[in-house]
Amino acid sequence: MSKYRPFATVPSQYGMPDGATVDDRGGYWVAVAAPPGGPPTGGVARFTPDGKLDRYVDMPVPFVTMVAFGGPTLSTLYVTTARLEAFMPQGVPEGAGNIFAMETDFRGSAETRFRPV
After folding, report:
1. Which pLDDT score, from 0 to 100, does residue 84 have?
2. Residue 45 confidence (pLDDT)
3. Residue 18 designated active-site
4. What strands lie across the sheet with 43-47, from one edge to the other?
């Protein structure tokens, strides 16, 4: 028997999880790439500390790859996307490969600075 258990599950209709970050309230934000043959857009999901899906934000492109908090108060969520033309037979949607930014009611945590010894 494994000591590991799933924290959360991204519903299959949304797609496949990719990069993630955590907010100041313990929420887990994850980039979600559209599933093959599924909806034409990906999104960003937020899970509460107990693993429940709290919100889902549709993005205008299919391949959402990473999320990170930034900005002066760490409340801006930056979302990176990929432009994978080989997987876009109907053409590349406007905005694919861009970085998007959205204001949230949450804050990220400042990264610890590394100092070489």
Report:
1. 75
2. 97
3. yes
4. 16-22, 28-33, 43-47, 53-58
Tell me the H-state helices in 1-117.
none
Question: What total number of domains does the chain contain?
Answer: 1
Which tokens is 49 given? 């500390």
Judged against a pLDDT cut of 90, whether residue 52 lies above it is answered with yes
Give the whole-angstrom CA distance, residue 116 versus residue 58: 40
Identify the active-site residue in 18, 23, 54, 105. Answer: 18
The whole-angstrom separation of Cα 70 and Cα 111 is 10
- Tell me whether residue 109 is in a domain: no
User: What does the pLDDT read at residue 105?
Assistant: 95
Dihedrals phi, psi of 87, to nearest 5 degrees: -100, 10
CA 26/CA 19 separation, integer angstroms: 16
- What does the pLDDT read at residue 112? 78
Residue 111 lies in a domain: no
Q: Domain limits at 43?
A: 16-103
Residue 37 has pLDDT above 90, yes or no: no
